[in-house]
Amino acid sequence: MSTKASLTGRGFAFAITTAGIFGVAAIIASTLGFAQTTPNERSVMVTPNSREALRIKEPHFEVREVRLAARPLDWNAPLGKLTPRKYTPEELEELRAPPQSSEGGRPDPRAEAEARRLHPEDWK
């Protein structure tokens, strides 16, 4: 067994990969601190009936009483009235035309060899 340090092979690749992972983790960990608010920024607490809560357009159900009082969604309300689609003459011609299909392509020349390799029990 050789005790020499080698700069080739799996050991070197493992060392480079490990160093890369730790380097990326260090960069990410150092940049996460920038996302925190600074003490000079103003934070606002939003209560259910405050002005900030009334400015929010979406319904928020963080308060238990509001969640319990919420009505279920009526699935028929957003649909509205359905109107049939008017087809153009070109679209009507395409719909009336008989279905067509293209010719098949050439078989794969390597199909049998691959089948023998993948399913040897079927080729005994």
Q: Give the helix proportion (percent range).
A: 40-55%
Q: Radius of gyration, Cα only, in angstroms? A: 33 Å
Report the biggest beta sheet as strand number plus sense, adding barrel if it closes: none
- pLDDT under 50 segments (min length 5)? none
**Continuous helix count:** 5
Describe the structure.
The chain is an all-alpha fold. It has a domain at 49-73. 40% of the residues lie in helices and 0% in strands. It is built from 5 helices and no strands. The longest helix is centred in the first third of the chain and has 23 residues, at 10-32. It is flat and about 75 Å long. The two termini are 44 Å apart.
List the helices and strands and how they pair.
Elements: H1 10-32, H2 51-55, H3 64-69, H4 89-96, H5 111-118
Brief write-up:
By secondary structure, the protein is mainly alpha-helical. It contains 5 helices and no strands.
Identify the notable features of this structure and list them briefly:
124 residues; mainly alpha; 5 helices; flat
